[in-house]
Design a protein that fits this description.
mainly beta, 3-stranded antiparallel beta sheet
Length: 65
Amino acid sequence: MDDPSDVMYVSSDEGDFEQQNSERVYHLHLVIQETSLRDGIDNIQHFRVVLNKAGIIRIENLTTC
């Protein structure tokens, strides 16, 4: 993975911009299809894995059904 930090510029109360360092994160979309003709199963699951250089931060279930 790339450099683990990212530079951001945000506006300050004085009206100018200040530099802030933030942690770089990556989003991995994982789609799992489960199919069984015998049992009549056809499921699709969608997860977002959020990770950084140190490892997995969280896993979000994006399945709508």
